[in-house]
Amino acid sequence: MYHPVKKKWCCVKPDELVTLIKKHYCDKIKYVKFKTTDGSEVSYKTYSFEAKLKDCYVPIKFVVVFGKWNKDDDNKYHILITNNLRASAKMIITNYLLRWGVEHCFKELKDTFSFDHYQVRHINKIERYWNLCLVAWTLTYWIKQNLSSCKRGCLSY
Predict the structure, then answer these.
(1) Closest to 1 (Cα-Cα) out of 64, 72, 44, 87
(2) What is the distance of C-alpha 93 from the center of its chain?
């Protein structure tokens, strides 16, 4: 990025980047608003810019999101990167937040069903294995949801 103190383009570490933005580019920080699943509205402070990574010649867009996603989040900021230079900060954040559910699903698949331990090499066999894992995960999830909502003694033999 263009370093406002050094007056030149240089590589900057994430913590330093956030500090520089807050100190020198605070007037360019924008709020992005979202509706949550419960209908309430939440807004994030964001700063976007285009740059290149070291040893990478493809221009990319950075979106720095200040603050936590939720109460369980330990990070004070998030840096999202895309090669879609025309994407808005709102679109980039939305796509990231949608992806989080997918990442959570894969983590559960790996932990519960050893999703990443398949020992086949042909793409068709890998796809079959993944499909079986996803069906097993879906069925397990469905059973958990229905049994937890069912009152004690609702299953009779």
Answers:
(1) 64
(2) 8
Distance of CA 145 to the CA centre of its chain: 25
C-alpha of 39 from chain center:
21
Question: 47: which residues sit within 8 A by CB, 6+ positions away?
Answer: 21, 25, 28, 29, 30, 63, 64, 66
Residues linked to residue 61 through DSSP beta bridges, in sequence order: 50, 82
Q: Do the beta carbons of residue 60 and residue 53 sit within 8 Å?
A: yes
The model carries a pTM of 0.66
Closest listed residue to residue 30, CA positions, set 1, 5, 63? 63
Render pLDDT for 103-149 as a digit per residue (tens, 0 to 9). Answer: 877 788 888 877 777 777 788 888 888 888 888 888 888 888 887 66
- The backbone torsions φ and ψ at residue 17, rounded to the nearest 5 degrees and listed phi first, read -60, -50
Q: Please, are residues 9 and 3 in contact by the beta-carbon 8 Å criterion?
A: yes
